[in-house]
Amino acid sequence: xxxxxxxxxxxxxxxxxxxxxxxxxxxxxxxxxxxxxxxxxxxxxxxxxxxxxxxxxxxxxxxxxxxxxxxxxxxxxxxxxxxxxxxxxxxxxxxxxxxxxxxxxxxxxxxxxxxxxxxxxxxxxxxxxxxxxxxxxxxxxxxxxxxxxxxxxxxxxxxxxxxxxxxxxxxxxxxxxxxxxxxxxxxxxxxxxxxxxxxxxxxxxxxxxxxxxxxxxxxxxxxxxxxxxxxxxxxxxxxxxxxxxxx
Length: 247
What we know:
This protein is α/β, with parallel strands linked by helices. The chain is built from nine helices and seven strands. A seven-stranded mixed beta sheet has the order 1-3-2-4-5-6-7, sandwiched between helices. α4 packs antiparallel against α5 and α5 (132-143) packs across α6. GO terms for molecular function: hydrolase activity.
C-alpha cells in the first residue's frame, strides 16, 4: 500500500512529516509560502493518520516515506513524532538528506517528564471512561500554545479526531517494524526548534540533539507551544525559508 501524499510546487525537494496528533493537513499554512519561495513540497500521511489507514501487517514509517523521494537530495521538516521519522531517515539514508528541521521533535526512548506522564494518565482515564470528546480537548489544552487561534485549535481538533477514528482507543497497538539506526550516522545539518510553552521533554530532546548532530543548532521559541507552525505561521514560514535556502 502506498501512503497518501501530495506534491506542490517545483524546485529543491522538501518533505514534511506530521505530528502523531495531526496529519499532513497541519502543514497547510506552510505549503503556499514554501512553493512561492521556489521549493517542491511533499507532505504525507503516515499509516494510521489522515488518508492512510493502518495496514493488516507490520510496517516501517521510514521505509514508507523513503519511497516518496528518489536518490535525493531532500530536506526533511518534521513535527513531534514526524521528527523522529525524519531522524531515522537521515540516519539510514544520509546521502539522500540535505538537511533537517525538527519542530518540537520527538525521540523514541527519551524518559518522560512528570508533566508528560500526568498528561498520558489523564488521557488514558478519559479514554477508559469513553469520553473521547474530553480526550480531544485534553490534547488541545496540552499541545496548543497560547498563540494558537480558534481556527488552529479547530484544525488540531479535527486531526486528532481522525486519529481516534483510524486508531480506535482500546484496539491493540499497531505493530511497526523496528530497524536499528544511530544518530551518529547523520551527516545533514539540523535545526532543532523547541517551544517555551511545550512540555519540557521536547526542549530537552532539542538540546540533546543539538549537541549530538553535526552542524546543528537549537532555536528556542519562548512564545511557542508544541505546534509553532500553526500558532505563528508567518514566523515559522520565514524561518523555514531562511533555513532551507541556506542548506
